[in-house]
Amino acid sequence: MIFRYLDIDTYILKKTHISFLIKLPSVKDTWLFNCTEGSQFDFLNKSLKINNLSKIIIPNLHVLSISGLLGLLSTLNLIGRIKSLHIYAPIELKYYLDLGKKYSKTNFSYVIYIHVLKTGLIINQYGSRIYTTNYYGFYEFFIVQSELCGTFSLDQAKFNHLLPGPLYGKLKKGFTFLMPDGFSLYGYNLTSTSNLGCQICCLFSYFYRNKHFNSLQFSRIVLLV
């Protein structure tokens, strides 16, 4: 998982209506949070393929959060996009898009699915999950990436006379097996170091709240947006 605009050594980033990307290189998928003005040019400046954009998360309908949305959608239409796009936003965004298409006399060549934001798990794909809570009318997000297992060593497996099969998958996940002769086979000895997961919190308040304290102390990055 790759984050744009985030310094890996920065734990708290303060900026009003921040816009950032989550890039999943393994599946060539990109998720966008907020769509500020000129978002399509940001893709070009960062050498990112705009057609890999699959999800847009809009926490509110403030002009700074959606000022670049119609332009971005039109750009996708101009480059001939055909695969669908998923937008997670308050229900009122539908009316904004309908009015935008009406007055610009534009129809998109691809399907746009609008998912209404609600409390709970909203996205669960590719080992990444996004949860949302509603805090006095503001949606806040918790982005969690699961720990990824290390690379399984086929050479080590062959050295231990292990035949290919479902056993490989178990060993890669770190399981331990006791063989009939009493020999213990440890999965971690056959895999490289696992990639630690991470958690990002996107909050709208600078004030302390007890219900978030336990989550925040384990978060790698906290965004006050």
TrEMBL record:
Where does the signal sequence lie? none
UniProt name for this protein: Ribonuclease Z
Species, as recorded: Polysiphonia urceolata
For the keyword Plastid, the answer is yes
- Keywords attached to this entry: Chloroplast, Plastid
Tell me the InterPro entries matching this sequence.
RibonucZ/Hydroxyglut_hydro (IPR036866)
Q: Does the keyword Chloroplast apply?
A: yes
Concerning Gene3D superfamilies, the annotation shows:
Ribonuclease Z/Hydroxyacylglutathione hydrolase-like
Which gene is the coding source of this polypeptide chain? rnz
Single annotated GO MF = 3'-tRNA processing endoribonuclease activity
